Every structure is written in C-alpha cells, then in structure tokens.
Amino acid sequence: MMMLSPAAKAAWVQFQDAIExxxxxxxxxxxxxxxxxxxxxxxxxxxxxxxxIDGTADTVGPAAFEGASQIAA
Length: 73
Prior knowledge:
The chain is mainly α. The chain has 4 helices and 2 strands. The chain has helices at residues 6-21, 33-36, 39-54, 62-72; strands at 3-4, 59-60.
C-alpha cells in the first residue's frame, strides 16, 4: 500500500472539500454527484501510478497528486 505524504494529504483534503462543496443542490456537480463524489479517490489512484512511473514509489508526493487532481477535475 502506498501512502500520501503529509503535503499530498493536505492537497487531497482541499481537493475533496472543493468537490463536496459543488455536490449540493445548485452546485456545479449536483447532477453527476454519484460520479463526482469519487473524483478525489480516483485522483489519488492516478497519483500513485504517476509516482510509480516516476520510480519513487514509496509515498505519493504533492506534485504527483497535483497533476493527477488536475486530470481528474
């Protein structure tokens, strides 16, 4: 299992909070909330792949998560 670095975890929380804010009635993601609610977790999986490809697979760093979250968004 690969863990998030503290900075990557902070970025994940911020990303998840931004998504959650848009899931409410009237939010931009309300109509696709069943899919959108999984976006932060999917970004984490993608970041782990990026980190593995990079060759430093110990922990997911903030740069890998940032790139993954941009793609997931």
